[in-house]
Design brief:
about 190 residues, alpha+beta
Length: about 190
């Protein structure tokens, strides 16, 4: 992914040197949807950084002034079904999400980052539709989606599980889907 700069942030691919900052917020993920990505130690974080550096699925969010990693975004284009398998098509629909170190919350970094990403996807990459899944109890992510102009498209009851209760039974969570279309973004 090409590097994106905002007033206070740089959005770029992961690189060697990001492991310690990634470990700082992934050793105990706050949002349940990231529990499966929990990192056990710095060595695991170093492996994860190398994996993420190899593609554009996860991108790093860093403070512009210091270069310090404070969070990340994930970008998942939906699969396409090309008529000709020899000529794969770029999907025009993208799922996104964000994960920030809680030490940097409440400063507007998530909104600044997501706004820059949405602009990049809609304007420069011809994305038609962006959507995000948010657990119904994740109030900060729900507010962020709404601030970005995304609308609720659905509520999936007991949709997914990220953890088990003390008896080993899955705890299912309700998940909301938010979305926005390019023409809606352009009208903002």
């Amino acid at each position: 992914m090409k590097t994106i700069q905002t007033d206070r942030l740089v959005i770029r691919n992961f690189r060697v040197g990001d492991a310690e900052a990634l470990f700082a917020y992934m050793r105990e993920p706050v949002a349940s949807c990231f529990f499966s990505l929990k990192l056990a130690d710095l060595a695991a974080a170093e492996r994860e950084v190398l994996k993420r550096a190899g593609d554009d699925e996860y991108v790093a969010v860093c403070l512009k002034e210091s270069g310090h990693l404070i969070g990340d975004l994930f970008i998942h284009p939906d699969p396409t079904w090309p008529d000709d398998p020899e000529k794969p098509q770029q999907s025009d629909t993208v799922s996104v999400g964000w994960n920030f170190n809680p030490l940097f919350s409440g400063k507007g970094y998530a909104f600044e980052t997501a706004k820059a990403l949405f602009t990049e996807l809609f304007i420069h990459q011809s994305t038609r539709r962006i959507y995000a899944y948010v657990e119904d109890h994740n109030a900060s992510s729900r507010r962020l989606c709404e601030k970005l102009g995304m609308r609720v498209e659905g509520l999936f009851l007991e949709y997914v599980t990220f953890q088990n209760d003390s008896a080993g039974n899955p705890i299912y969570e309700n998940t909301m889907q938010y979305a926005i279309l390019r023409h809606e973004w352009n009208q903002r």
